[in-house]
What we know:
Elements: E1 7-10, H1 16-27, E2 31-36, H2 39-51, E3 55-60, H3 66-80, E4 85-88, H4 104-132, E5 135-140, H5 153-173, E6 178-185, H6 194-198, H7 204-211, H8 222-233, E7 244-247
Parallel strand pairs: 1-2, 1-4, 2-3, 4-5, 5-6, 6-7
Helix pairs in contact: 1-8, 3-4, 4-5
Amino acid sequence: xxxxxxxxIVTGSGGGIGEGIARRLAEQGARVVVNDxxxxxxxxxxxxxxxxxGEAIFCAADVTRSxxxxxxxxxxxxxxxxxxxxxxxxxxxxxxxxxxxVSEEEFDRCYAVNMKSIYLSTVHAVPPMRxxxxxxxxxxxxxxxxxxxxxxxWYNGSKGAVITTSKSLAAELGPDNIxxxxxxxxxxxxxxxxxxxxxxxxxxxxRSRFLSTIPLGRFSTALDVANAALYLAxxxxxxxxxxxxxxxxxxxx
Length: 253
């Protein structure tokens, strides 16, 4: 059990990559707070973790709202008395299209979900981590923040901001024994946002085009990302901070 009894929040874990992370951490002994803005989806994941013998609770919260993020952190503290790891997985993207065609509302939402959420989680999770003697943030960024391409310009920028901010926080919070790292997944056609990333339904032509850019010859899966998160959350990564792990089959090389 690599994260036994660690209290871990996973935002946006009602499906997709977040669900995979929550399940994998629970399998390895973590006490998981499942979070999603969609209550039914989040509760379903939580119930299935508990049914499988894991420890989990659900907390509905909008990661762009300070009061909701505070309530999310408080849910962990009230149930288990501590917070060891904060996995900022919730994300959103505008449709793949020219930069000038993305609306201001879409731009604002992209930065609120992808970047403001990191700010809010830092504001609310750092104090209990300091009180607890340390902790860890795992921010799910994207290969788009490392190797951006046309069509997702504003999304790319938001993920680049996550990466830079994570590195800065790692330097600032290191003296508090708080680690901050990123995971950068490559395109996964099975996530709820895949059509937005692709600019339309993920048909065979779009799948082939994306797949041709990945040297290992397959897309990332939720389990691939979850295994990276498990490592970063564990004591095996006790001296790892300020890094980005590309889970991308060499896409960014």
